[in-house]
Amino acid sequence: MKIALAVIAALGAVLLFLLATASANTALFARNYPLLLGVNGIAAVALLGLVVLQLRTLWRDYRGGVFGSKLKLRLLVMLALMAVLPGALVYAVSMQFAVKSIDSWFDVRVDNALEDGLNLGRTVLDTLQNELLEKGRSMALDLGDATASQPMLLNRLREQAGVQSAALIATSGRVLSSSSDSVDSLIPAVPAQAELRQARQSHGMALVDGDVATGIVLRVLVPVRGTELGDEPRVLQLTQMVPAAITRSAGSVAATYRDYQELQLGKEGLKRIYTLTLTFTLLLALFAAVALAFFLAERLARPLLILAEGTQAVAAGDFTPRASLETRDELGVLTQSFSRMTSQLDEARREAERHRRNLEATSAYLESVLANLSAGVLAFDADFKLRAANRGAVAILGDDLADAENTSLAQWSRHGAFAAAVDANFRERGTQWQQQLELEDAAGTPQTLLLRGSTLPVAGGGGYVVVFDDITYLISAQRTAAWGEVARRLAHEIKNPLTPIRLSAERLQIKLADKLGDTDRAMLDRSIKTIVSQVEAMKNMVNDFRDYAKAPPPELRPIDLNGLVREVLDLYESAGTHVAVELAADLPLVLADANQLRQLLHNLLKNAKEAMTEAVAAPAIAVATRFEDRRVALSISDNGAGFPPQILSCAFEPYVTTKAKGTGLGLAIVKKIVDEHRGEIQLGNRSGGGAEIIIKLPLAA
Amino acid sequence: MPCWKSLLSVCLAAWLLLAVGTASAGSIEPLRATLVPTDDGYALSAEFTVDLGPRLEDAVARGVPLHFNLEFDLTRVRWYWAAEHVTGTRVEYSLSYNALTRQYRLSAGGLYQSFSTLSEVLRVIARVAALPVVDKSLLKGGETYSAALRLSLDRSQLPKPLQVDALANRDWQVDARILRWQFVPADSK
Prior knowledge:
The complex is a heterodimer.
Chain A: H1 2-23, H2 33-64, H3 69-105, H4 108-145, H5 150-161, E1 165-170, E2 175-180, H6 193-200, E3 205-209, E4 217-224, E5 234-241, H7 244-265, H8 267-315, H9 330-372, E6 376-380, E7 386-389, H10 391-397, H11 416-429, E8 432-440, E9 446-455, E10 464-470, H12 472-513, H13 518-549, E11 557-559, H14 561-574, E12 579-583, E13 590-592, H15 594-612, E14 621-628, E15 631-638, H16 645-648, H17 666-676, E16 680-685, E17 691-698
Parallel strand pairs in A: 12-14
Antiparallel strand pairs in A: 1-2, 1-5, 3-4, 4-5, 6-7, 6-10, 8-9, 9-10, 11-13, 14-15, 15-17, 16-17
Chain B: H1 2-19, E1 26-37, E2 41-51, H2 54-61, E3 66-76, E4 84-98, E5 103-108, E6 111-115, H3 118-126, E7 127-135, E8 145-153, H4 160-168, E9 174-176, E10 179-183
Parallel strand pairs in B: 1-9
Antiparallel strand pairs in B: 1-2, 2-7, 3-4, 3-8, 4-5, 5-6, 8-10
């Protein structure tokens, strides 16, 4: 479209130039003037078509709400107005001027003067003609009378009259004689038959030949009548050149007169020419200006559109690089700055994003650390509403604390004792405190918690943090250690008197047996027997204590746990106890003391067996090993009664037992062994009934 | 765009108003035309009635030169194809008035004649006698030819303002009818 505009505009300019040149009074394009007008008209129509096409496109864009079309339309209207208003003004003034000035060319006085000039010229010619005619007539008379040699007479008469050439012509048109004052026109032009006939019937006629350019020649034809009858009628022809000065002057007057007449005739036409030329100029200029205004509007609007689009995109969060104009003017600089700004924004946003991600990662890390702490952490805001709780807290309290975020600590529906203790501590003991709290969990198992509270600095928003540990197991371990010490001492102190007591009782039996009667002796024997058996039992018990207390440290070696299990189970199998075995293949070696492990297995299997002797229909003991996460797990389960809940937390303490007889040292010893192997022991009830004990031992390598 | 349409119709109306006006145009009517056999071929003789109309006669009297074209075309009629152009002749006349000598001058191809009245000149223009137009060698006996003859005013040689006037004003126009007739040359052998 741009190219079309350029071509049409250039063509229009050329055409206009031609039209203007041709419209001025020149001979250029005189023959094809209407064609030139038509071509100009076509150019104007083509430009109009272009403008209409552009207008339609723009209008459609405008109606369709295409971004930027409003701005373009406004720019276009402004530019077009700037072109149209001065154009129309100049057009109106020029029209007025041209049409008025054409009228002013024609003036009655000029008209009259030219007419008078022409008449003057005609009069001069007439005078000269009449003069020549008079000369001719007198010459004809002389010639008619004379009988002398005609050529001589003719020449003489011509010279007398001062005529340029004279010829005597017969009726047939034959030249009888001629005379001339110049050598180059010896043979005169022969008059036409009609002229001769006309001349013979008159007293002589005058003719004018030639024109202004070649020189005007006056010619008279006078009949020569002889005095005698029967004379051949002849015609005398005289020619005389009009003097050059007269010809020139009269000619120029005539030419001017003709031009003036022509102008007057073509007055309306001239006005039309001027009107048409001016109108075409206006139309071509206007259409070209409007068409150009489109491109200018587009060009002007483009940087603004780029900016507007960019702003919208930035507002929508799109920071992709924008196009910018590579011009050096302010708008170009503006678009370049804008594009630079968006890229900087983009960078800043990316930086912020990176910071945010770093922060998130850090806080996620902290959170995961917190979450994986075995200690429980509770954070409260200033109103004692829960802000955060870690997994440890949830696990220790056995509660997901779902609605605790909305209620103040004092109004907690569960964990009343815990909440009351925390509340009271913060109120009474201030910013830093520590307390050991005895609780019962949901199942009624006693639980010992160690609470530490601290107030958060007000700068960080204030609030409170409570960190607490479940130290139930720690306390039981302490208790175990204490028991061990007690047992060792008791064993030492009690064992010493046992042997003398027994020996003394036996001596009493030996010494007194013979001295007593039968009844007394029977009673003595019974009593001595009781003493001995009780001493023996006590001794066994004391030995057990000693064993528990003074178990030697384990000699750790890599051993095959599966092999050990099979070896121990062989004994039980032979004793008629069925044990279901599920041993993992490729079990790695564990670092353990084989003897202690054997004892451990004996203790556990014995417990299991005893648990089922009471009232179980289908006794089933299962032993399984498996490899899990850098440890080897050994599980022993039965389908007996399981542990009562109150026993679960303190099952490893000595003298805790469910059995009617038993020292309660079995599990305590197991625990001690596992602890010394740096292993782990879990004890619980299976969901289907029965107990399960899982022991995890470290690997050898 | 109704405004464009209305503008267009206004322009059209203005043009029509200019073009209508008094329709006292001149006319050149061919009266008769014949091809007369000569030794070399055929010569044209024809007669027209020439009426320039008052406006053009006035223009001539004021010294505006007029140019006339006499055009003769001979084509061979072919039933199977477009007509074949055989020959054509064009004679240009130029008529002018010399205000100084009060003479009308008619020139054609370098030759000129002077007349003292316009009607004399027009009579000369209107009569074409023995204008050799067709060479014998171009014709075949027995064939049918179509001849066309027209005498017209050459408007393109009018002065520019008058040309523009002639576009809009019928006074400046001279209707020239084309005379067509069938012509069968006699067998020359």
